[in-house]
Please model this.
Amino acid sequence: MPAKQWNLQRLLSESSYWRSCVIISAAHLDLFDWLGEREKTPSALAAQFGGSGAAWEIFLDALCAMGLLRKRGQRYANTRASARYLRGGAKTFLLPGYDAWSAWGGLAFALSEGRRPGIQKPFFSDRRKAERLLRGLDLHAQEIAPILIRNLSLSRCRKLLDVGGGLGTYSIAFCRFYPRLQATLVEHPAISPLARRAVRDAGLAKRVRVIGMDFSRGTLPRGFDAVFLSNVLHARGVDENRSLLRRLYGCLNPNGQLILRDIFMNRDRTEPEWGALFSVLLLLHTPQGRCYTLDEILRWLRQAGFSDISRPFPSSSLPFDPDAILVARKFTKLKGTARRQKSKAESPA
Model:
């Protein structure tokens, strides 16, 4: 069926959240990790996690029906799929979905009340939830980064500023690919200790400097050949984004480049579909965030002083990566002026 065509069967299928609730709950409980390579009974799960064996049997049977567990008699075990995708770090991408449940349940209330639930507190106010979200983003970034790097050229870049870079996955990847590159990662003080640990674990503490600060308000360092801004704009309001892009322009050396990675919506804000739905999530979790149109972002870049802005191109083309890349440059007249002065000086009298 074409993506935009609906019938009763599709409406019932798309509005059913039963499967996602079962999968995310199992991941949240570390069920697949606990099962490991062995078969377990419902009573063993009740002894480990609490509750009754009868309730666990119902839950485990549902996972078997979905093909994520196998059953032999009264014993349950992981399938190849659950062992590969839902154990250890592989399940990290599911856990933020568990944290978002209560907000999604309040969507109708938020709309009718005209009040964003995310205004109450930032996501990093709960350290455990923040770390789960960052680990999930890190898992995605580890897959995306090798492809993204091949689509960019930083061979002439010696100093990179990564603003809002989370655990530093992209800074680490850039520095590994470009051995002469030095990176500075700016992240909120609540997140920066996690980033420092990730950079240290990667063996790049001497090449990736981590600064803990609120980059929305603090004074950003200057003197960089490139700035990398990934998935920052959609979490903020219009005025804050305009201000941030102006300040990032000031961070760049002459002829430096801003690498902007985000979701760019069409003029109607109806495509891509993922971005339109993600904007609803941002409505629930941020004070002013939404996915912005390409025209809006281009206008902000030009107002900030950037020029020679590239056409957007896919970040990676991976199925779970809806983002695109824009590259904008900070051109100054100094270089051209100096060249003209030199030409005059060398011309015969």
Q: What stands out?
A: Residues 10 and 122 are 36 Å apart (CA to CA). Residues 127-150 form the longest helix (24 residues).
